[in-house]
Structure formats: structure tokens, C-alpha cells
């Protein structure tokens, strides 16, 4: 074991997790590659849990950051005015909001995803005067108390140490029956029935693709019907696009194909484009009912992240990145769909765009496959309540060569663990 890893194991809390699954000391990174201190290179199908959509050390974004720092430009400014702040807002309006016909105010909460969610929940309750929030089975929205209250994972919820209240959980699309609108019929019936025992909510919050929950994909028609139900009942719709936004599914926002315009949108992870902490909460102007300073934070609006996020928006001046994601998604789905059918265990491929998952009936196989991938030079995580899903999150900008090589490693690793689990039905 390296000296650095020994130091981490000795001094860092037992709460650490990823280092246990990927026991290497990483020193450098470029594009879709991670380099360890012993010189070993790994293809990265994890991308910082969706933070590095544009790759590690993206050269154009890095150049903008280096130029800014070299000029002694302001780094920290709370929410005082800065040129970097204004330039991000102008660019975001020009490249993202106006082309989509979206009229939203922008709030900079604390710099992480859970801060964006907490802001959304607090604002929805303030605007409506109601306390309850509807969330969905297997949803994940963060680790602070408000975000945990609308998160489904029992282990993570238990870590709160206090009751998690003012939230009700409903079945996500496909939770009761694949391809059925039963979950929405139930939700609408509860909204209409004063005997349901569920308080009328301030908001409904969801991910369009549940990432940590196991790559559970909501159908576009389901999302559209959900938005209609919320509008009809004067309930705000919050879309948590933290992990599956910023192009992860192809378009910038994951909900675009549904034709909906949520009341509130949460973004973080890849928003800065460079791995710097950065989050925004977007909301329709009529919901901007804050008093000055009513919600704040020391790092609300990090100028370095403004700079890198502004540069990252260059990718969205046209649809080239979206089309490239769609092209490479077809490669992923073709190869891994065939793999899931070929192996001698029950497995299915599911996902949208560059978030894909192989779900195994034998819940131990995804973890074993992830470990085998790491031995072969690929970093890839698991997801789902039982970690039963091998989850792909490659950078959107990954080269065809690295994508194909990573998929070959998955094919080799998954075939091995599947054959080991079912030796009487081995496949080549």
C-alpha cells in the first residue's frame, strides 16, 4: 500500500467510500483518463459522479480559469457584484434560457447540489404557504436534512439521526408497473381526495432519471402528465437536474423532450464545467418572493466557477455536443444491450443518453463487475438501493477510442462475473 493511501486510511473518517472501491492514489487527469501515482492509467466511466461532463482538465475551460487567476481577478465576493458573475448570467441567458423560451430568475445558493435542493424546498414552501413536499420512491436529492426528507434510501435517511418530516413519497414511473400511468393516477386521486391523509403539498420534486436510485427512467409522456397534474392543482414542480442535466441525457436539460417548464430547477455538478463547486436554483419570476438576505451562504457565487461555467457554455451555442452524445449513446446501447442478452444471468440495460445502467437480478454482480473493471483499468460505480446496477457516466466529450475500450472492459468484466455466477451456462 502506498504511503499516501496509508495516510488517508489512518487519518480520514470511516465515512469515506469511493476510495475503498477504487484503491489507487490519483495524481493527474486528462479528458476521460485518470492517472495514478504508480503511472497506471484508468479510463473514467464515473466522471466525478457526473461532475466532469466535459472531461478532466478540459483545456479550453482551464485556459479561461488560468487567465483569470493570472490577472489577480477577484475570487471570493459573497453576492457582491463582479464582472464574472454578470458575464455568467448574460451567457446563461443567451445560450441556455432564450433559445428554449425559458423565463427564469437565477439564484446562487451554496455551491453544492443539496444547497440547490434546500433552496428549492424552502422557496416552494414560502411561495405556497404549505409544508408538505411529494417526492418519489428511490429518489435521491442530497444529504442535508431537507434533501434527505425527500430522499428514498433508508440507509441514508437513517443517518439523519432525527425524524425527517414534511414529505410524502409516491411511486416513481415504473415502480408499480412498467409503462403504466398507475402512479400518476394514484397521485392525482390523492390530490383530489381530502380523505387521503396526505396534506396538499407545496411542491413535487423529482429526477427525470433517478441516478443513485438505480438509473430509473421516467417516460416523457409521464413527465408531461405529471406537470399537467401539478399545474391543475396549484402545486409547484421542482426538477432536480443536478446529475442528469448539463447534457448528460443529450439536451442541456433532461426534461426538454417532454416539453415542460418546471416551476423550479436545480443544477450543480457539471454546471461549472471543471469540477469546481457551483450550484444554481432557477425559478419562474413570479416565485421570486425572497426578501434580501433571507437565504444566503458564504460561497453563494464562486467567481472561479462563474468563469469556468461561462466558458463551458460554449458547448451549447449549437447542437453538436447533443448530436455527438446521441451518436455515442447508440454505440453504448448496442454493445451493452447485446451483452445483457448474451450473459448467463438475468440482466437488463436501461438509461438515457450518457447515463446507462446494467441492472442485475443477482444484486452482488454489479459490485463484483465494478471491481473487475477496476482491475482491468476502468473506473465505474454502482447504483440502486442494493447497488445492483452497474452505472455508466462517461464524460460527454470522451473519444470514440476511449469509449470503445471502456465498453470492451465492461464486456470482459461482466462476462467473467456472470460466468462465475452461473458456471454451467458459461459464454465466451
UniProtKB/TrEMBL annotation:
Pathway assignment: Amine and polyamine biosynthesis; ectoine biosynthesis; L-ectoine from L-aspartate 4-semialdehyde: step 1/3
Keyword set includes Transferase: yes
Cofactor or coenzyme needed: pyridoxal 5'-phosphate
One GO-annotated biological process of the protein: ectoine biosynthetic process
EC number: 2.6.1.76
InterPro entries: Aminotrans_3, Aminotrans_3_PPA_site, Dat, Ectoine_EctB, PyrdxlP-dep_Trfase, PyrdxlP-dep_Trfase_major, PyrdxlP-dep_Trfase_small
Keywords, comma-separated and alphabetical: Aminotransferase, Pyridoxal phosphate, Transferase
Enzyme superclass (EC): transferase
Molecular-function GO terms, alphabetical: diaminobutyrate-2-oxoglutarate transaminase activity; diaminobutyrate-pyruvate transaminase activity; pyridoxal phosphate binding
SUPFAM superfamilies with a match to the protein in the record: PLP-dependent transferases
Source species, domain of life: Bacteria
Similarity comment: family membership: Belongs to the class-III pyridoxal-phosphate-dependent aminotransferase family.
Protein name per Swiss-Prot or TrEMBL: Diaminobutyrate--2-oxoglutarate transaminase
UniProt organism field: Wenzhouxiangella sediminis
Amino acid at each position: 500500500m502506498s504511503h499516501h493511501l496509508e495516510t488517508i486510511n489512518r487519518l480520514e473518517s470511516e465515512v469515506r467510500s469511493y476510495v475503498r472501491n477504487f484503491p489507487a492514489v490519483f495524481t493527474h487527469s486528462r479528458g476521460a483518463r485518470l492517472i495514478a501515482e504508480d503511472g497506471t492509467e484508468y479510463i473514467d466511466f464515473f466522471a466525478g459522479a457526473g461532475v466532469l461532463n466535459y472531461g478532466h482538465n478540459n483545456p479550453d475551460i482551464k485556459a479561461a480559469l488560468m487567465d483569470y487567476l493570472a490577472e489577480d481577478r477577484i475570487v471570493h465576493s459573497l453576492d457582491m457584484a463582479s464582472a464574472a458573475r454578470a458575464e455568467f448570467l448574460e451567457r446563461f441567458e443567451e445560450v441556455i434560457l432564450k433559445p428554449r423560451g425559458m423565463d427564469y430568475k437565477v439564484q446562487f445558493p451554496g455551491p453544492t447540489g443539496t444547497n440547490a435542493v434546500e433552496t428549492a424546498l424552502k422557496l416552494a414552501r414560502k411561495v405556497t404557504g404549505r409544508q408538505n413536499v411529494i417526492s418519489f420512491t428511490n429518489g435521491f436529492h442530497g444529504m442535508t436534512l431537507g434533501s434527505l426528507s425527500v430522499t428514498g434510501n433508508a440507509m441514508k435517511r437513517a443517518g439523519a439521526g432525527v425524524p425527517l418530516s414534511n414529505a410524502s413519497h409516491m411511486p416513481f414511473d415504473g415502480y408499480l408497473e412498467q409503462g403504466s400511468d398507475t402512479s400518476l393516477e394514484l397521485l392525482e386521486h390523492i390530490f383530489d381526495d381530502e380523505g387521503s391523509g396526505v396534506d396538499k403539498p407545496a411542491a413535487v420534486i423529482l429526477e427525470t432519471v433517478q441516478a443513485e436510485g438505480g438509473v430509473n427512467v421516467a417516460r416523457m409522456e409521464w413527465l408531461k402528465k405529471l406537470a399537467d397534474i401539478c399545474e391543475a392543482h396549484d402545486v409547484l414542480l421542482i426538477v432536480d437536474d443536478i446529475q442528469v442535466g448539463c447534457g448528460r441525457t443529450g439536451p442541456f436539460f433532461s426534461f426538454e423532450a417532454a416539453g415542460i417548464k418546471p416551476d423550479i430547477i436545480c443544477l450543480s455538478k457539471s454546471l461549472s464545467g471543471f469540477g469546481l463547486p457551483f450550484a444554481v436554483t432557477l425559478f419562474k419570476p413570479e416565485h421570486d418572493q425572497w426578501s434580501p438576505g433571507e437565504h444566503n451562504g458564504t460561497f453563494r457565487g464562486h467567481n472561479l466557477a462563474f468563469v469556468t461555467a461561462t466558458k463551458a457554455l460554449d458547448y451549447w451555442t449549437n447542437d453538436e455536443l447533443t448530436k455527438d452524445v446521441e451518436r455515442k449513446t447508440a454505440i453504448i446501447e448496442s454493445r451493452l444491450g447485446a451483452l445483457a442478452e448474451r450473459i448467463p444471468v438475468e440482466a437488463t440495460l436501461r438509461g438515457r443518453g450518457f447515463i446507462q445502467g446494467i441492472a442485475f437480478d443477482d444484486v452482488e454482480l454489479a459490485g463484483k463487475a465494478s471491481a473487475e473493471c477496476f482491475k482491468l483499468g476502468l473506473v465505474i460505480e454502482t447504483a440502486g438501493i442494493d447497488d445492483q446496477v452497474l452505472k455508466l457516466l462517461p464524460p460527454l466529450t470522451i473519444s470514440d477510442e476511449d469509449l470503445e475500450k471502456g465498453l470492451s472492459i465492461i464486456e470482459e468484466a461482466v462476462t467473467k462475473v456472470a460466468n462465475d455466477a452461473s458456471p454451467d451456462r458459461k459464454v465466451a
